[in-house]
Amino acid sequence: FLLIKMSPESVSLSGDSSVSDFCPAIALCAVPTVSEVTKASADAINADPAMQRLYKDLQSQEAQDWRFKNHMEIVRIISPSRQELRRQAEITKRMSKDWGLDPKNITTRTDGNLPGAGVQTVDGKPVYNVCYRIPGTYSKSKDAVNYKGQYPKVLIEGHIDTVNPPNLPSADKPYAPIKLAPASDPIVKTRAELAAITEELHFDKNGNLIKDETFKKAYKRFKNLEEAKANGGTRFYIPGFNDAMINTTAVMQAAVMMHKHGIKPVYDIWVCGTAGEEGKGNLAGMKQLFGYSQEAGKANNALNFVANLSADCTPPASGNVNYSGSYRFEIKYTEAEGSKASALMAMSRAIEGIVNVKTPSDLDKKAERTTYTVGLARCTPAGENGRSKECSLSVDMRSLDNDSLKAVRSNIEPQFKKALDAENAAHGLKADDPKAVKMELVWFGDRPASKRTEYNDSVIQSYWYTAQKLGIDQRKELDMVAGSKNDNVAAALGIPTINFNVGTNAAGAGDHTWYEWGIPGDGSIESKRVYRLILMGLMSSGFNTSDGKIVKPLVGPMGPRTTEEIFK
Question: How far apart are CA 18 and CA 34, in angstroms?
Answer without folding.
Answer: 33
